[in-house]
Amino acid sequence: MDFLRRIDAHLHFLAVRPQEIEMLRSLNVKLLNICAADRADWRDQQATPYRQQARQWPEQFAWCTTFDLPEVPYRGDYAERVIAGLEADFAAGAVACKVWKNIGMELRDTEGRYVQVDDPVFEPIFRYLEKAGRPVLAHLAEPIACWRPLDPELPHTEYYRQNPKWHLYDKPEFPSHRTILAARDRLLDRHPDLRLIGAHLGSLEFDLEMLADRMNRYPNFAVDTSGRLVDLAHLGVPVADFIETYRDRILWGSDLGTNPCHFPPGYRPPESCTLLRRVYELEWDYYGSDKLLTIGGRAARGLKLPAAIQDKIFLENARNWYPGLDRRNSNGSAWAHPSGRPAAALVGNTK
Question: Which structural domains are found in the chain, ordered by start?
Answer without folding.
Answer: 6-271+306-346 (3.20.20.140)
